[in-house]
Automatic annotation (TrEMBL):
Keyword Protein biosynthesis: no
Entry annotated with the keyword Lipoprotein: no
Annotated ranges, domain Pseudouridine synthase RsuA/RluA-like: 94-247
Protein's recorded name: Pseudouridine synthase
Organism of derivation: Nocardioides psychrotolerans
Keywords of the record: Isomerase, RNA-binding
PANTHER family: MITOCHONDRIAL RNA PSEUDOURIDINE SYNTHASE, RIBOSOMAL LARGE SUBUNIT PSEUDOURIDINE SYNTHASE D
Amino acid sequence: MTQQVDHRSLQVPDGLAGERVDAAMAQMFGLSRTRAADLITGGMVTLDGAAVAKSDRVLPGTRLDVTIPFEGDPLEVVPEIVEGIKIIHDDDSIVVIDKPVGVAVHPSPGWSGPTVVGHLAGAGFRIATSGASERQGIVQRLDVGTSGVMVITKSEHGYSLLKNAFRQRTVDKTYHALVQGHPDPHEGTIDAPIGRHPRADYKFAVMGDGRPSVTHYETLEAHRFASLLEVRLETGRTHQIRVHMAALKHPCVGDITYGADPTLSRRVGLERQWLHAVKLGFEHPDSGAYVEYESTYPDDLSRALEIIRDAD
Protein backbone atom coordinates (compact mmCIF):
# COMPACT_ATOMS: atom_id res chain seq x y z
CA MET A 1 0.00 0.00 0.00
CA THR A 2 1.13 3.54 -0.68
CA GLN A 3 1.43 5.65 2.43
CA GLN A 4 -0.06 9.10 1.78
CA VAL A 5 -0.20 12.05 4.12
CA ASP A 6 -2.38 15.14 4.31
CA HIS A 7 -0.87 18.13 6.15
CA ARG A 8 -3.27 20.79 7.43
CA SER A 9 -2.67 23.97 9.41
CA LEU A 10 -5.35 26.37 10.67
CA GLN A 11 -5.75 29.08 13.29
CA VAL A 12 -8.26 28.38 16.05
CA PRO A 13 -11.28 30.71 15.59
CA ASP A 14 -12.76 32.73 18.46
CA GLY A 15 -15.85 30.53 18.58
CA LEU A 16 -13.82 27.49 19.66
CA ALA A 17 -12.12 29.19 22.63
CA GLY A 18 -11.83 26.78 25.55
CA GLU A 19 -12.82 23.68 23.56
CA ARG A 20 -10.91 20.41 23.93
CA VAL A 21 -8.34 19.86 21.22
CA ASP A 22 -10.12 16.78 19.85
CA ALA A 23 -13.47 18.63 19.70
CA ALA A 24 -11.86 21.64 18.01
CA MET A 25 -10.19 19.39 15.44
CA ALA A 26 -13.50 17.71 14.65
CA GLN A 27 -15.07 21.10 13.95
CA MET A 28 -12.15 22.60 12.06
CA PHE A 29 -11.02 19.69 9.92
CA GLY A 30 -14.22 17.68 9.41
CA LEU A 31 -12.89 14.67 11.34
CA SER A 32 -14.69 12.35 13.71
CA ARG A 33 -13.84 12.85 17.42
CA THR A 34 -12.42 9.32 17.49
CA ARG A 35 -10.16 9.99 14.51
CA ALA A 36 -9.00 13.29 16.05
CA ALA A 37 -8.17 11.55 19.34
CA ASP A 38 -6.22 8.83 17.49
CA LEU A 39 -4.15 11.43 15.63
CA ILE A 40 -3.36 13.25 18.90
CA THR A 41 -2.35 9.99 20.59
CA GLY A 42 -0.19 9.17 17.57
CA GLY A 43 1.75 12.45 17.88
CA MET A 44 0.32 13.83 14.65
CA VAL A 45 -0.99 17.07 16.18
CA THR A 46 0.75 20.17 17.51
CA LEU A 47 -0.64 23.41 18.94
CA ASP A 48 1.66 26.35 18.26
CA GLY A 49 4.40 23.78 17.64
CA ALA A 50 3.97 21.92 20.94
CA ALA A 51 2.60 18.41 21.44
CA VAL A 52 -0.89 18.19 22.94
CA ALA A 53 -3.18 15.82 24.81
CA LYS A 54 -6.73 15.36 23.58
CA SER A 55 -8.15 16.95 26.76
CA ASP A 56 -6.03 20.12 26.42
CA ARG A 57 -7.99 23.29 25.69
CA VAL A 58 -7.45 25.59 22.72
CA LEU A 59 -7.14 29.36 22.68
CA PRO A 60 -8.23 31.59 19.78
CA GLY A 61 -5.39 32.59 17.48
CA THR A 62 -3.26 29.55 18.27
CA ARG A 63 -2.34 27.33 15.32
CA LEU A 64 -3.30 23.68 15.02
CA ASP A 65 -1.04 21.64 12.76
CA VAL A 66 -2.32 18.19 11.86
CA THR A 67 -0.72 15.38 9.86
CA ILE A 68 -3.33 12.91 8.62
CA PRO A 69 -1.90 9.64 7.28
CA PHE A 70 -4.00 7.20 5.32
CA GLU A 71 -3.32 3.92 3.59
CA GLY A 72 -4.04 3.44 -0.10
CA ASP A 73 -6.79 5.39 -1.83
CA PRO A 74 -8.60 7.80 0.56
CA LEU A 75 -11.60 7.81 -1.81
CA GLU A 76 -12.05 4.04 -1.79
CA VAL A 77 -15.56 2.96 -0.73
CA VAL A 78 -15.17 0.52 2.18
CA PRO A 79 -18.26 -1.67 2.67
CA GLU A 80 -19.36 -1.61 6.32
CA ILE A 81 -22.66 -1.65 8.19
CA VAL A 82 -23.14 1.73 9.88
CA GLU A 83 -25.21 1.73 13.04
CA GLY A 84 -28.06 4.24 12.98
CA ILE A 85 -28.71 4.47 9.22
CA LYS A 86 -32.38 3.69 8.61
CA ILE A 87 -33.92 2.72 5.27
CA ILE A 88 -37.10 4.77 4.77
CA HIS A 89 -37.90 3.54 1.24
CA ASP A 90 -36.34 1.18 -1.26
CA ASP A 91 -37.32 0.28 -4.84
CA ASP A 92 -35.62 -0.49 -8.16
CA SER A 93 -34.74 3.17 -8.82
CA ILE A 94 -34.03 4.84 -5.47
CA VAL A 95 -33.24 4.22 -1.83
CA VAL A 96 -34.25 6.84 0.74
CA ILE A 97 -32.40 6.85 4.06
CA ASP A 98 -32.46 8.58 7.42
CA LYS A 99 -28.83 9.66 7.93
CA PRO A 100 -27.57 9.98 11.51
CA VAL A 101 -25.08 12.58 12.67
CA GLY A 102 -21.40 11.66 12.34
CA VAL A 103 -21.77 9.92 8.97
CA ALA A 104 -20.41 11.38 5.73
CA VAL A 105 -22.26 10.76 2.49
CA HIS A 106 -19.15 9.52 0.64
CA PRO A 107 -15.37 9.17 1.24
CA SER A 108 -13.14 12.23 1.02
CA PRO A 109 -9.48 13.01 1.84
CA GLY A 110 -8.98 13.24 5.60
CA TRP A 111 -12.28 11.58 6.52
CA SER A 112 -11.88 8.08 7.96
CA GLY A 113 -15.30 7.74 9.55
CA PRO A 114 -18.40 5.91 8.31
CA THR A 115 -20.11 6.79 5.03
CA VAL A 116 -23.55 6.33 3.51
CA VAL A 117 -22.16 4.70 0.34
CA GLY A 118 -20.03 2.36 2.47
CA HIS A 119 -23.12 1.29 4.43
CA LEU A 120 -25.16 0.68 1.29
CA ALA A 121 -22.34 -1.41 -0.18
CA GLY A 122 -22.02 -3.37 3.06
CA ALA A 123 -25.77 -3.95 3.20
CA GLY A 124 -25.81 -5.34 -0.33
CA PHE A 125 -27.46 -2.45 -2.16
CA ARG A 126 -26.51 -1.97 -5.81
CA ILE A 127 -26.52 1.73 -6.61
CA ALA A 128 -26.08 3.68 -9.84
CA THR A 129 -22.58 3.76 -11.31
CA SER A 130 -22.93 7.32 -12.63
CA GLY A 131 -20.76 9.94 -10.97
CA ALA A 132 -17.22 9.83 -9.55
CA SER A 133 -16.23 6.42 -8.17
CA GLU A 134 -16.47 7.46 -4.50
CA ARG A 135 -19.90 9.04 -4.90
CA GLN A 136 -21.68 6.92 -7.47
CA GLY A 137 -25.45 7.30 -7.26
CA ILE A 138 -25.18 10.42 -5.09
CA VAL A 139 -27.47 13.26 -6.22
CA GLN A 140 -27.44 15.26 -2.96
CA ARG A 141 -25.36 15.55 0.20
CA LEU A 142 -25.85 16.31 3.88
CA ASP A 143 -23.03 17.56 6.12
CA VAL A 144 -21.42 15.05 8.51
CA GLY A 145 -22.97 17.06 11.36
CA THR A 146 -26.45 17.25 9.81
CA SER A 147 -28.96 14.43 10.14
CA GLY A 148 -32.11 13.56 8.25
CA VAL A 149 -33.70 12.29 5.05
CA MET A 150 -31.81 11.95 1.78
CA VAL A 151 -32.13 9.99 -1.48
CA ILE A 152 -29.56 7.88 -3.33
CA THR A 153 -30.22 6.55 -6.83
CA LYS A 154 -29.94 2.87 -7.78
CA SER A 155 -30.62 3.06 -11.54
CA GLU A 156 -28.80 5.10 -14.16
CA HIS A 157 -32.17 6.45 -15.33
CA GLY A 158 -32.97 7.53 -11.78
CA TYR A 159 -29.57 9.19 -11.40
CA SER A 160 -30.00 11.21 -14.58
CA LEU A 161 -33.52 12.43 -13.76
CA LEU A 162 -32.91 13.23 -10.09
CA LYS A 163 -29.53 14.85 -10.69
CA ASN A 164 -31.26 17.15 -13.17
CA ALA A 165 -34.18 17.75 -10.76
CA PHE A 166 -31.77 18.96 -8.07
CA ARG A 167 -29.96 21.10 -10.64
CA GLN A 168 -33.24 22.61 -11.85
CA ARG A 169 -34.38 23.21 -8.24
CA THR A 170 -37.58 21.18 -8.60
CA VAL A 171 -36.86 19.05 -5.51
CA ASP A 172 -38.57 20.21 -2.29
CA LYS A 173 -35.98 20.22 0.51
CA THR A 174 -37.33 21.06 3.98
CA TYR A 175 -35.22 21.39 7.11
CA HIS A 176 -35.89 22.34 10.72
CA ALA A 177 -33.27 24.52 12.40
CA LEU A 178 -33.08 25.73 15.99
CA VAL A 179 -31.37 29.12 15.83
CA GLN A 180 -30.25 31.53 18.50
CA GLY A 181 -32.49 34.52 19.18
CA HIS A 182 -35.47 35.59 17.09
CA PRO A 183 -35.09 36.33 13.38
CA ASP A 184 -36.75 39.57 12.31
CA PRO A 185 -38.90 39.31 10.27
CA HIS A 186 -40.29 36.01 11.58
CA GLU A 187 -40.39 34.65 8.03
CA GLY A 188 -38.55 35.67 4.92
CA THR A 189 -36.05 34.87 2.20
CA ILE A 190 -32.27 35.12 2.36
CA ASP A 191 -30.78 35.73 -1.08
CA ALA A 192 -27.01 36.00 -0.56
CA PRO A 193 -24.19 34.35 -2.57
CA ILE A 194 -21.97 31.85 -0.75
CA GLY A 195 -18.30 31.13 -1.35
CA ARG A 196 -15.29 29.60 0.40
CA HIS A 197 -14.30 31.60 3.49
CA PRO A 198 -11.24 33.73 2.63
CA ARG A 199 -9.38 32.93 5.87
CA ALA A 200 -10.65 29.47 6.85
CA ASP A 201 -10.82 26.73 4.22
CA TYR A 202 -13.01 24.51 6.41
CA LYS A 203 -16.02 26.80 6.21
CA PHE A 204 -17.99 29.10 3.91
CA ALA A 205 -19.29 32.67 4.04
CA VAL A 206 -21.55 35.15 2.28
CA MET A 207 -19.28 36.48 -0.47
CA GLY A 208 -19.97 39.00 -3.22
CA ASP A 209 -18.41 36.71 -5.81
CA GLY A 210 -19.94 33.52 -4.40
CA ARG A 211 -22.49 31.20 -6.00
CA PRO A 212 -26.17 32.27 -5.93
CA SER A 213 -27.83 30.91 -2.77
CA VAL A 214 -31.47 31.29 -1.73
CA THR A 215 -32.98 30.17 1.59
CA HIS A 216 -36.64 30.58 2.68
CA TYR A 217 -37.50 30.37 6.39
CA GLU A 218 -40.54 30.55 8.64
CA THR A 219 -40.64 30.65 12.47
CA LEU A 220 -42.49 27.67 13.96
CA GLU A 221 -41.74 28.35 17.65
CA ALA A 222 -40.22 31.35 19.42
CA HIS A 223 -38.64 30.72 22.82
CA ARG A 224 -36.60 32.73 25.29
CA PHE A 225 -33.19 31.78 23.93
CA ALA A 226 -33.90 30.36 20.49
CA SER A 227 -36.39 29.94 17.65
CA LEU A 228 -37.38 26.79 15.78
CA LEU A 229 -37.50 27.49 12.05
CA GLU A 230 -38.81 25.60 9.06
CA VAL A 231 -36.36 26.17 6.23
CA ARG A 232 -36.81 25.46 2.54
CA LEU A 233 -33.79 25.47 0.26
CA GLU A 234 -34.08 26.82 -3.24
CA THR A 235 -30.41 26.13 -3.90
CA GLY A 236 -28.14 23.53 -2.30
CA ARG A 237 -24.78 25.07 -1.41
CA THR A 238 -22.43 23.50 1.11
CA HIS A 239 -23.33 24.69 4.65
CA GLN A 240 -26.03 26.95 3.11
CA ILE A 241 -28.45 27.13 6.05
CA ARG A 242 -25.62 27.44 8.57
CA VAL A 243 -23.95 30.25 6.60
CA HIS A 244 -27.16 32.19 5.94
CA MET A 245 -28.41 32.00 9.54
CA ALA A 246 -24.98 33.03 10.84
CA ALA A 247 -25.03 35.99 8.43
CA LEU A 248 -28.31 37.08 10.05
CA LYS A 249 -26.61 36.82 13.48
CA HIS A 250 -28.85 33.87 14.35
CA PRO A 251 -26.55 30.83 14.04
CA CYS A 252 -27.88 27.34 14.55
CA VAL A 253 -27.72 26.35 18.22
CA GLY A 254 -24.59 24.24 18.76
CA ASP A 255 -22.89 25.43 15.57
CA ILE A 256 -19.64 26.67 17.10
CA THR A 257 -17.97 26.86 13.68
CA TYR A 258 -20.41 29.56 12.61
CA GLY A 259 -20.52 31.61 15.77
CA ALA A 260 -22.96 29.83 18.09
CA ASP A 261 -22.71 30.54 21.83
CA PRO A 262 -20.57 27.76 23.38
CA THR A 263 -22.29 28.21 26.76
CA LEU A 264 -25.74 27.64 25.28
CA SER A 265 -24.40 24.69 23.29
CA ARG A 266 -23.14 23.04 26.46
CA ARG A 267 -26.38 23.86 28.30
CA VAL A 268 -28.47 21.96 25.75
CA GLY A 269 -25.87 19.19 25.39
CA LEU A 270 -25.03 19.65 21.72
CA GLU A 271 -21.69 19.08 20.00
CA ARG A 272 -23.13 19.76 16.52
CA GLN A 273 -25.49 22.16 14.84
CA TRP A 274 -29.24 21.82 15.56
CA LEU A 275 -30.21 21.16 11.96
CA HIS A 276 -32.27 18.29 10.58
CA ALA A 277 -33.53 17.42 7.09
CA VAL A 278 -37.17 16.64 7.89
CA LYS A 279 -38.75 16.24 4.45
CA LEU A 280 -37.79 15.54 0.85
CA GLY A 281 -40.24 15.64 -2.05
CA PHE A 282 -39.74 15.02 -5.78
CA GLU A 283 -41.16 13.33 -8.86
CA HIS A 284 -40.31 9.64 -8.76
CA PRO A 285 -37.99 8.87 -11.70
CA ASP A 286 -39.96 5.74 -12.68
CA SER A 287 -43.63 6.60 -12.11
CA GLY A 288 -43.46 10.38 -12.45
CA ALA A 289 -45.70 10.62 -9.38
CA TYR A 290 -44.83 13.14 -6.66
CA VAL A 291 -43.43 11.35 -3.61
CA GLU A 292 -42.49 12.71 -0.21
CA TYR A 293 -40.40 11.20 2.58
CA GLU A 294 -39.98 12.41 6.18
CA SER A 295 -37.62 11.98 9.12
CA THR A 296 -38.30 12.65 12.80
CA TYR A 297 -35.85 14.45 15.12
CA PRO A 298 -33.06 12.28 16.53
CA ASP A 299 -32.66 12.02 20.30
CA ASP A 300 -29.94 14.68 20.71
CA LEU A 301 -31.96 17.33 18.89
CA SER A 302 -35.20 16.40 20.68
CA ARG A 303 -33.50 16.73 24.09
CA ALA A 304 -31.96 20.09 23.19
CA LEU A 305 -35.31 21.43 21.96
CA GLU A 306 -37.05 20.35 25.17
CA ILE A 307 -34.40 22.15 27.26
CA ILE A 308 -35.01 25.32 25.20
CA ARG A 309 -38.79 24.99 25.62
CA ASP A 310 -38.48 24.42 29.37
CA ALA A 311 -36.37 27.59 29.75
CA ASP A 312 -39.30 29.88 28.81
